[in-house]
């Protein structure tokens, strides 16, 4: 027999899943815009603001479920995890907007040295794959898929440090390209961190086990 709480949890799940789709769209749009030299900041900003509002909606629904139905421990684990994941998805949106903000304010990546363009493109592909894994694993509650982010997260961290090191050695003067590249790789590294947090929450929701995938 379905409890009243179950219906509320289904509604909460729907909102969180939808947030994952919007967050993934915002990031894909911002990264492709940055690499291709397109100003997509307005559209990405709209998506980011939607995610902020949806995070508030998740919090409100979560507190309402706790107050009304006195959920048991396993229910609380889901509610608490969804609140954390909603925050991570909101951060996806914020970093997407930060990246989209670079082109109209720092100049185009196309004017930078070739290695910078290629490095950021390679790092972006890896991070976007992590984001996809985080969203897909949540929808299926696939813990094995979620755990695959560990290797990519370590690779992104290494790429971040490699990029900073190369910029210090090869960028003779501080210019817009250097600043833009530093900011872009920093945002990408943080997005990868949040993808890992989502994956950890997926494992917790599914198994009750708290793991570190970093």
Describe this structure in words.
This protein is mostly helical. 85% of the residues lie in helices and 0% in strands. The chain contains eight helices and no strands. α2 runs antiparallel to α3. The chain is elongated, with a radius of gyration of 19 Å. The termini are far apart. 40% of the residues are buried. The model has no long low-confidence stretch (mean pLDDT 92).
Q: Top keywords for this entry?
A:
214 residues, mainly alpha, elongated
Please give the structural blueprint:
Elements: H1 4-36, H2 41-69, H3 73-100, H4 102-106, H5 114-140, H6 143-147, H7 149-170, H8 176-207
Helix pairs in contact: 1-2, 1-3, 1-5, 2-3, 3-8, 5-7, 5-8, 7-8
Task: Summarize it.
By secondary structure, the protein is mostly helical. The protein has eight helices and no strands.
């Amino acid at each position: 027999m379905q409890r009243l709480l179950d219906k509320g949890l289904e509604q909460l799940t729907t909102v969180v899943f939808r947030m994952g789709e919007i967050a993934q769209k915002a990031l894909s749009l911002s990264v492709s815009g940055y690499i291709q030299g397109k100003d997509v900041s307005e559209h990405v900003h709209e998506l980011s603001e939607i995610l902020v509002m949806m995070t508030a909606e998740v919090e409100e629904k979560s507190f309402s479920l706790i107050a009304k139905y006195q959920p048991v421990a396993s229910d609380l684990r889901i509610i608490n995890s969804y609140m954390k994941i909603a925050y991570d998805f909101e951060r996806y949106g914020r970093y997407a907007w930060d990246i989209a903000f670079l082109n109209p304010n720092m100049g185009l990546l196309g004017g930078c040295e070739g290695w910078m363009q290629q490095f950021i493109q390679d790092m972006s592909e890896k991070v976007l794959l992590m984001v996809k894994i985080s969203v897909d694993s949540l929808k299926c509650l696939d813990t094995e898929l979620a755990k695959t982010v560990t290797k990519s997260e370590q690779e992104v961290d290494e790429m971040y440090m490699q990029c900073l090191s190369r910029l210090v050695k090869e960028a003779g003067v501080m210019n817009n390209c250097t600043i833009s590249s530093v900011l872009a790789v920093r945002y990408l590294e943080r997005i990868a961190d949040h993808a890992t947090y989502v994956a950890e929450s997926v494992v917790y929701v599914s198994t009750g086990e708290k793991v570190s995938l970093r």
